[in-house]
Amino acid sequence: MARIGSGTRFVLVAGTTETATRDGISAAGADPELMPVTPAADAEILTYGGPVRTDVIPVSPSGCPTPALVTRAVREVLGMDVTVVDGGLAEATGAPTVTVGARPGKDIAEQDPVSTAHGAFAAARQFGQSLPADELWLGETIPGGTTTALGVLRALGEDVMVSSSLPENPTARKADLVAEGLAASSMDPGDAAGEPKRALRRMGDPVLATMAGLTAGAVETDTAVTLAGGSQCVAVAALVRHGGYEGTLGLATTSYVADDDSADLRESADRLDLDLTVTDPGFDEGDHVAMERFVAGEAKEGVGMGGALALADRAGVPMAEVRDRFAELYDDRIGALE
Amino acid sequence: MARIGSGTRFVLVAGTTETATRDGISAAGADPELMPVTPAADAEILTYGGPVRTDVIPVSPSGCPTPALVTRAVREVLGMDVTVVDGGLAEATGAPTVTVGARPGKDIAEQDPVSTAHGAFAAARQFGQSLPADELWLGETIPGGTTTALGVLRALGEDVMVSSSLPENPTARKADLVAEGLAASSMDPGDAAGEPKRALRRMGDPVLATMAGLTAGAVETDTAVTLAGGSQCVAVAALVRHGGYEGTLGLATTSYVADDDSADLRESADRLDLDLTVTDPGFDEGDHVAMERFVAGEAKEGVGMGGALALADRAGVPMAEVRDRFAELYDDRIGALE
Question: What Gene3D superfamilies does the database record attribute to this sequence (chains A, B) (predicted)?
Fold first, then answer.
């Protein structure tokens, strides 16, 4: 039963950056070797409810399940259609994807880590212009994405800190890596101010390029955009603002990101003039193993989780219903394997 | 509102063959130059209700709209999810697609027209094995597809005639072209009996290869398969039978194909031991310009139209409801442009 209007379209951008393979950067995948698979698996989980080609449900080293299961739970509860865009996948996914020419990103310490950034931005922008929707909700899945988000923010000269999928945000490590990347691109912080595509290509990742293009295209044709996520969405918003767009832009995230003291999401949203929606899934009331790691501060966001929760809330769905479905999915897909 | 079980999955395979560019072979596209665009547009219409990247709604030279609008109407009425597989698209589509490595097919008079046939079959088979569904309904869109279907049937040694999207089936022209193709591949009719992949590669197209692979994989994992269409689906069934599968296989088509005297669909279904479902959309009662050309014998099938109608019928949806929605879509998308 659809409990959501047909004018609302939820888009997931899934891709990769080799930046994720650096030690201690991301919690997206129990094993570093599985990280390139995570976005392909997330796309399948959101689309089908479980893995198809990837044969894996991403789980962090400490056992936190992918937020894809939460977004999938909302999708099922709302009867919500989703569209997945290939933002540089490194592994084949069984989920149908829209192609914008994005290829996997390289480590930002390399000189030209996102050679497809301009092309992907342009194709995504055109797609965003033509996609029929009254409102677009954009989520992402890319391990290592908060580090490239920091890279883009520094390149643009935006002095904000990003959040992390790890309970302890490795802020120093990220800052070092971004400094290394800026040096490799012969850039100082702020050198790409007003030049979003340059920031994307030198310090970003293909998912950020695709999301920024989608957002730019959609708002040009009066489609309302809500960025569904945390730090990466702040980076996308900064890119679009540096591209000259001054209109309305939404940011919907979880209470876990909003309450992360190591970042400063509320301040960033304020500075970038974003309409912020924070939704608490109430996992502390859930009393379920699938929710414990979220309550402990892991994952926090991803696969548009914050946006999905906001859509459920807007539709009047009690969070308990979302939690129940999430717990069922977890028990079916992960609990059964243990 | 979903009026269809979650275990039912509708898959559209969309692709191209250069065989379609021969004069008088296909009605799929008002202009021969638009034929490579038709499958990309059909995928968008089924997914979004209208064109996104392609900017065109396929219409035959005499004004018959693409059956994609009918299948889309059923999709909306039933709240039915669809998955599009790229079976060799020649133009970018805005619809999300699953990749199996199929590339556009060449003219069957060339020596190796479907070089990706083996790879696409294998990847589609694997996908068919892993796709979560109780039953799979498989439709196709490929201009020129009945001619390549005839090519495959001849290569396998199956003596049946195929139907046509044109009111007057150009049977002699098709037979000549198939004879030319067999000669180019140094084959006699029946030379590929029991060798479906050889028949596909030498005389088929990438959509047939993908559909045959999907079917083979799905039935291996006990997913019931209904081929949703006319002559091309007969060819897919023949390929799967020649591959050794003797179990249950469904064929769901429109009354227009079943009543086409130039082909012999009922006899073919009988010979290949297919469970045949024929559904009449009642377009003669519709009294609408969108339906007139169908009643006159044009298009007949495509984009899984016969299967979609069968699903609507099974769900207890009156055909008048499907017709009304189809007429609305036509008026919105085509009528408004006239």
Answer: 3.40.50.10210
